[in-house]
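Technical annex, item 7. During the second reporting period the consortium partners agreed on a shared format for inverse folding records so that results from different sites could be compared directly. Each record opens with the tokenized structure and is followed by the designed sequence. A conforming record, contributed by the partner at site C, is shown below for reference.
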């Protein structure tokens, strides 16, 4: 499915729901790891290496990982789940808006 584009300058991106999801979600950075015997489950959480540095991206089976802690910002993880579930929609809309604004200012993307 192609990414969603803003049709014109009159079509405004509603930032308020996105901002609410960001504010409600657990502070990052986040990392992820496959879990389960067949690696068919993905766990997302806050992870640290042996030096206490925050991890981001895929953790995998790294020897320097102490733990992946699942800290939930709310009692049932709802806010983090909402944030993750909306990312596939929110991010393309935000990219489209940034590109639109850059176009208005005559700024080219690095890969153009």
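Designed sequence (site C submission):
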């Amino acid at each position: 499915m192609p990414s969603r584009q803003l049709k014109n300058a009159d079509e405004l991106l509603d930032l308020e729901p996105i901002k609410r999801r960001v504010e409600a979600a657990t502070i990052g950075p986040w990392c992820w790891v496959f879990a389960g015997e067949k690696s068919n489950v993905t766990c997302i959480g806050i992870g640290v290496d042996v030096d206490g540095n925050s991890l981001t991206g895929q953790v995998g089976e790294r020897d320097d990982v102490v733990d992946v802690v699942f800290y939930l910002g709310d009692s049932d993880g709802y806010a983090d789940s909402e944030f993750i579930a909306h990312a596939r929609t929110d991010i393309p809309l935000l990219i489209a808006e940034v590109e639109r604004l850059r176009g208005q200012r005559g700024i080219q993307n690095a890969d153009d």
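The CA atoms of residues 101 and 107 lie 9 Å apart. The chain has a mean pLDDT of 75. All partners now use this format for quarterly exchanges.
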